Amino acid sequence: MTNYLRAFYFLRSMRKRAYMSPERLRAYQTDRLKAVVRYAYENSRFYNSRFKEAGVRPEEIKNVEDLNRLPLLRKEELRENVEQVVSNEFQISRLKVMRTSGSTGRPLSVYLTGRENEFRKAKHIRSNTAYGQRPWDKWVTITSPLHFAETGSLQRLLRVYSVTPVSVFDDVANQFLKIEKLRPDVVDGYSNSILLLAKEAKKKGMGMIRPRFLVGGAELIEPGSRKFVEDVFEAPFYDQYACVELERMAWQCEEKAEYHIDADSLVMQFVDEEGEEVAPGERGEVVCTSLFNFAMPLIRYALDDVGVPAYDGNCPCGRVFPLMKVLEGRRTSLLTLPGGRVLAPFAFMLAMWSFRYYDSVDLFRILQRKKDLLVFRLKLKPSGVDSRTVEEELMRHFRSLLGIPADQVRFEVEFVEDIPMDKNGKFRIVVSELNSD
């Protein structure tokens, strides 16, 4: 019961912090940052060595800007040094372990104390309560079986913020039947899984799946697909940004515009290829420092995602958190064309959304096989236009909209019966085989 009550205490405090003054929020963030840095230096062999190698003492990290004196921590380095990163105050065998989905085939283990786990749960729920989720709502998530055990036994017993998981690897028809029986008030999951569920609902009829709202994440979703989901379920769809290592990091509020960064639980930076912070409105890799992970500190952790920080401004909702304008996709999914031009996955998604025959496309994936070769893999709907017409119009549309000349990059179109999801249950729409995960 103690852990359960602690999670509610965290949630209550978090909801208040969302409406702090900007000055108080910055002071709170700075205090937490200093505590994490000091703790990591004193209790983690990895960070003790890292600080010394960088010639930085913990007391010299006095604000967010000072973090730039430290090198980035990438997932490969973290995976290889997990035992040294974990605080020497804890035995790894006694900590709760969570694992990433492992897109490379090598999952990363993340270690937490019970207190940190309750904090994560509260962090997750805070954004959902902003959408109107109530403690007793029926809540379904489409996710990897790796995450099935994340709802505690007490939560399930009391049915308070208790989530029922459905495997992302199930056939969408089976997912539909399971979710229909549960009659959920809230549905969340990987964005493309929710899109596929909406397509199944459109085909079969709504049935008993009538959520008040839906929440997507883990994958990019373009405006056309978002509108389709909302039209089918007659409910709002909100996008969130999260990872196993840090839980929820940024989320759209009721305004469904830019993303609120959870600045009371992490520091989010956007950096260029040299590790320097970019200006608002510019593209940069997302780098986070956790303000609540002590068992396994994460300082300047590079997420391999590319985002754009928003210009200073207040959201009409009244929350004071800094804003992220847009998440553009994985750093390894950026397509570098001859001449050095870089295109983000989201540019291709928007182009597809405005394609004349978009409604005839069931699934699509864009592959960069060579620097000068893009392959458009399409699964067409049975009653759509003929493939030759789609191919000709697609190449014309993408060349014109994205300004890619034929003498610079070749386009090939492949029509297929299906496009399988990635082995981690996610679905990447744009894949560069030149720098693939």
| Corresponding CATH architecture of the largest domain | 3-Layer(aba) Sandwich
Structural class: alpha/beta
How would you describe the shape?
globular
Q: State which percent range the strand residues make up.
A: 15-25%
Q: How many β strands by DSSP?
A: 19
Task: Please tell me about this protein's structure.
The strands form four sheets. The chain has an eleven-stranded mixed beta sheet, with helices on both faces. Helix 2 (22-43) packs across helix 3 (45-54), helix 9 packs across helix 10 (223-233) and helix 11 crosses helix 12. With 437 residues, the protein is of the alpha/beta class. The chain is globular and about 65 Å long. The model has no long low-confidence stretch (mean pLDDT 85). It has helices spanning 2-17, 22-43, 45-54, 75-80, 82-85, 114-130, 153-158, 172-182, 191-204, 223-233, 345-353, 387-402, and strands at residues 96-99, 109-112, 139-143, 163-167, 186-190, 213-217, 237-243, 247-252, 259-261, 266-271, 284-290, 301-309, 323-330, 335-336, 342-343, 361-370, 373-380, 410-415, 430-432. The protein folds into two domains: 2-328, ANL, N-terminal domain (Rossmann fold); 334-432, GMP Synthetase, Chain A, domain 3.
